[in-house]
Amino acid sequence: MSFPWARYHDGPNGLPFTVDITIPRLPRAHSKFCTCITIREDYPCEECGEVYAQIHRLIDIARNPKAHTNYKFLGLGHIHDLVKKHADQINQLKLQACNDSHKYIYALTQLDDYNHLLMAISHNDIPRIHQIVNVALTHGASVREVVNKLEDALEGVYRPRGMALTT
What we know:
- This protein is mostly helical.
């Protein structure tokens, strides 16, 4: 938390009080419109009494800045928190991008497998193809495994049971 020195001037956005820091351990704030007329000697005047509420409002603003506050008005602690928050958000987005790319690659691989299956069925005359596909699917085979079984059947390496040799 730091004092808003940027607003410590005379003008429309200036603070309505002055700060006396001749004794650094005991700063004192006085209203710019101080009348120095008090009821008792140890009480501040009416204008200086309102400074207390304004200082507490500034303390609240400094401790809890709004989200749209310009960075030049923030203290180092708040800037550190913002950098950490943005770094966490960047890491979260990187992780999400990695997960999404994994999903896309998996979907593209599946599409490629289906394309291979269609090409194997359409370009080759495989005897009893219906039986080979049904056997593979009943055993829970993936599309890639079905394509491999069809290629093996073309080469004569795989014959499902009950498939007779017809040449």
